[in-house]
Amino acid sequence: MHALELALFFLFVVFATWLDLFVLHKDDHEIGLKEAAVTSLAWIILALLFSGYVYFRYGTELWMQYIAGYTMEKALSVDNLFVIATIFGFFGIRGGLQHRALAWGVIGAVVMRSILIFLGVEAVERFTWLLPIFGVFLLVTGFKMLRHSDDEGAKSLEENRIYKLVSRVLPVYAGYDGHAIITRKSGRWQLTLLGMSIVMVEATDLLFAVDSIPAVMGISQDFFIVLTSNIFAILGLRALYFLLAGILDKFRYLSVGLALVLLFIGGKMLAIPFGYHVETWISLTVVLGTIATAIAASLLIPEKTPPQQAD
């Protein structure tokens, strides 16, 4: 991997974010279904075109690692959208401002994940015993996801520990000031509700990154592959949110599929010290097959309706 590749990649990320935030959506207009679908498809095509570069530059092995990592990150980002929708609903963030909040959230996520991935890859290269520890962590996370109930996801944001901490530490103005993140009120600078929602989106992504980055590192320990698959999945998050906002509740089996994938990768990482190596094509098949099955089951299996109580 050359430094020039990373420099060009980040230049593309900066340009795409500037184009999206300050040119295409500078007026905070409402994002329609057609626009969201076209934008989401465009990001997927760009990610696949980049996978073609990986294939011709690095070969089949790293290409399969990239596809598996990108697919898993994309699916995990859908799971993340449930929490983001709750945040926007709590703060009353409307459509146009939702895009701005997500855009700034993605900028922060790109910076934060790049740092975490660099530290993670460097740590694993220096201390190989960290991989089995990551494996145990993924197993615990997978089992927690399998036990996750709808009641846990329905808790009010006011009960969220991060929200309580941020609202105590940072001054918050209970209103908006255009699309400003901070505003000066009563002689001091305060976070607007838009700014507070961005902080919460960033905090949420940090929690999800703690799960997703070790999961991708269970597929590949190549810094370039882990970084680019992660970031390409994040860059399409905004369009994906507006595309799926109205039907997020339909993907009720996605969390189960993701939990099974995390359990598989966690087990794969735990097997490394014992001399067992799972081929990349097997990992790719498991990731793609499990996520596709979970999505298909969510869409095809009718949801059970609770029996009505007698009067």
List the helices and strands and how they pair.
Layout: H1 3-24, H2 33-58, H3 60-91, H4 95-126, H5 130-147, H6 150-153, H7 161-169, E1 182-185, E2 188-191, H8 193-217, H9 223-235, H10 237-244, H11 254-271, H12 280-300
Antiparallel strand pairs: 1-2
**Sequence of secondary-structure elements:** HHHHHHHEEHHHHH
Shape, per Cα inertia axes: globular
Mean pLDDT: 81
Total number of β-strand segments? Answer: 2
Number of helices: 12
What do you see in this structure?
Helices cover 73% and strands 3% of the residues. A hairpin with a 2-residue loop joins β1 (182-185) and β2 (188-191). With 311 residues, the protein is mostly helical. It contains 12 helices and 2 strands, in the order αααααααββααααα. Residues 149-154 have low confidence and may be disordered.
Q: Could you give a quick summary of the protein structure above?
A:
The chain has 311 residues and is mainly alpha-helical. It has helices spanning 3-24, 33-58, 60-91, 95-126, 130-147, 150-153, 161-169, 193-217, 223-235, 237-244, 254-271, 280-300, and strands at residues 182-185, 188-191. Helix 2 packs across helix 10 and helix 11 runs antiparallel to helix 12.
